[in-house]
TrEMBL record:
InterPro entries: Solute-binding_3/MltF_N (IPR001638). The lineage of its organism: Bacteria, Pseudomonadati, Pseudomonadota, Alphaproteobacteria, Hyphomicrobiales. This is Amino acid ABC transporter. Keywords: Signal. Residues 1-17 form the signal peptide. The keyword Signal applies. SMART domains: PBPb. Transmembrane segments: none annotated.
Length: 274
């Protein structure tokens, strides 16, 4: 199966739906058992303040972000809103705090790796970060892009996972590497390269920023490839507490089916990177 097909099959998204598209990682027909958390005294989520727009301090110094709103939604779905708390710590203190029992879950973007699984049990991913192309608005290609970008100069950050992915999946493109994003975007706007390939979320923020000056838009994709880009965001709990991870899966599934997660996603990403 091609990368494009893999991406769309995984996401359950229409290939040419209008923006904004919302990622869907859950089978609506799946039935998960509702957990009994009546014996739980409290549920403390640990996060950080330096991962916007997921977790950050707003202008009033309040902990805010997609993760904060998602925690509230999860706790409401589980019927334990009065037992839930969320606390921000420096990144380097999260693991120790969890292991010491100063919290029950971490929602801060811990990478889901084999090594991490020796320390944590994870929920299923609730968000993944696809690779995307961006192109000038007057020259946007539609899928399939493989043949259309043959021989075209495509900019990408040097040494990145996106460079490796671009070379492996689009070997017919002329890859142009950059050490600085400013130069990458400048060449795109000047027409020196046909497209930029990179992290969809970061490219989405650039598209709506003043520097882009409404020059460009997403083209093709989204492209998901965990072997290059990781497994996405998941909630971590202690390795000996997989039942709590399962409880989060129940809540995340319900929030997806009800459309609650879509509302949260579009609140923080009005230009969808899917």
């Amino acid at each position: 199966m091609s990368l494009v097909a893999c991406a769309l099959a995984t996401l359950a998204l229409p290939a040419r739906a209008a923006e904004p598209q919302v990622p869907v990682f859950w089978d609506t027909k799946e039935r998960l058992a509702k957990p009994d958390l009546s014996s739980l005294d409290r549920l403390r989520f640990l996060t950080t303040t330096d991962f916007p727009p997921f977790n950050f301090l707003d202008a009033g110094g309040r902990l805010s972000g997609l993760h904060v709103d998602l925690v509230r939604a999860i706790c409401s779905e589980l019927g334990i809103a009065d037992k839930c708390q969320i606390q921000a710590l420096p990144w380097g203190e999260l693991e120790q705090a969890l292991q010491k029992g100063e919290g029950e879950a971490i929602i801060a973007g811990i990478a889901v790796t084999e090594e991490a699984r020796t320390k944590y049990a994870f929920s299923r991913p609730y968000l993944q970060f696809p690779a995307r192309f961006i192109m000038p608005k007057d020259a946007v290609f539609t899928e399939p892009l493989y043949s259309k970008i043959a021989g075209k100069e495509i900019g990408v950050m040097a040494g990145s996972a996106h460079e490796r992915m671009l070379r492996d999946y689009f070997p017919n493109a002329k890859v142009v590497t950059y050490d600085k994003q400013e130069a990458l975007f400048s060449d795109l706007k000047k027409g020196k390269i046909a497209a930029v390939y990179g992290d969809g979320m970061r490219l989405g923020f650039w598209l709506v920023g003043s520097d882009a000056a409404d020059c460009c838009r997403f083209a093709g994709g989204p492209y998901l490839a965990p072997e290059y880009l990781g497994n996405g965001l998941a909630i971590a709990v202690k390795a000996d507490n997989p039942a709590l991870a399962d409880a989060f899966n129940y809540a995340l599934h319900a929030l997806s089916v009800k459309g609650t997660f879509a509302e949260l996603y579009l609140r923080y990403f009005p230009v969808s990177f899917y």
